[in-house]
Amino acid sequence: MKSKFKLDRWQIDLIKNLSSKAEWKPINKALKTHVLAAFAPILFVLSIPFWFVGLLLVKLDPFFWTWESLTRHMDNLVWGSVAVWFLIAPLLFAYLAIKHRRLRPQAEAFLQTNVVDKANRLHLERQVSHDLAYEKERQRQLRGL
Predict the structure, then answer these.
(1) How far apart are CA 124 and CA 19, in angstroms?
(2) pTM for the whole thing?
(3) Mean pLDDT calculated for residue range 134-145
(4) What does the longest C-alpha to C-alpha distance in the chain come to?
(5) What is the predicted pLDDT for the residue at 71?
(6) CB–CB of 24/114 below 8 Å?
(7) What are the DSSP calls for the chain, one per residue?
């Protein structure tokens, strides 16, 4: 599902410069969710080989999780922790993919209302104030002639 949400760099910069840190925290969190939602499925697909490596390590030493095996050699502790990590990493990436895919619409709605609309409003306010200042200066120059 391709997102139609687009956030321009100038909108982010404008909000960053004109917002307090307290206002920026939830915006930053939503931006991270938006980005992670795009990359988490890719990370999950890339982590599939980890399953095979983890299963291979377990196959080579099927009792790496027992106390006797762990205390027999320090290598087994390293071996076991590597195998466990290789088996858990894809689950972690799958969890992130599902979580961030679920949160993506909320993050986009939040960003749309809090960043895009605010940036556009601030941009318009700046433009109007610039136009008013220009008009005042023009009127002053016309009166001076």
Answers:
(1) 16
(2) 0.35
(3) 83
(4) 98
(5) 53
(6) no
(7) --------HHHHHHHHHHS-HHHHHHHHHHHHHHHHHHHHHHHHHHHHHHHHHHHHHHHHSTTTTSHHHHHH-HHHHHHHHHHHHHHHHHHHHHHHHHHHHHHHHHHHHHHIIIIIHHHHHHHHHHHHHHHHHHHHHHHHHHHH-
